[in-house]
Design brief:
Elements lengths: L6 H15 L20 E27 L4 E26 L9 E11 L2 E10 L4 E25 L1
Antiparallel strand pairs: 1-2, 2-5, 3-4, 3-5, 4-5
Amino acid sequence: MIPFISKKTALNTVAILALSFTQIPAATAQTANAPCGENLPLSGKITFNGQSFSILVGVRWGKGVLTLNDGQEIPFSANGVKALESGARVGEIEGEVYGLTDPLDFVGQYFGVAGGVVPVQSAGDITLVNAACVVIVARHKSTGVKLSAPVEQSIKIQFQ
């Protein structure tokens, strides 16, 4: 068993995933290819610590902090799903937030394409966008084992 996730948590996560996966409004979602404008202003930065577990369909969760340009820090949590993924990992994410005119626009469903292999440790880039055209461009460092196809993932962010 993976040391950072219990069997009960894994089974509960798969059950939650089954319910969550049917509720993703993909048809109405803003995607990375949708017109959000160019040269969006830098609005702040994020730091995030999370983990994921997957058997063909992955779930991810964690907590982070949005730091606005004026120095205000807002804690948030995130969880999400991604198909065609297997493995488990823990990771840290640091990045920039663009196009945020109101902090409440940060909350919501984000979509973006991600994929790859985490052999034991890896690093990579993530780009996510929500319906308010808030864009997160981040880098992650992960530890674990994961195989993931390059398909769209969904992440829901909410303030704590």
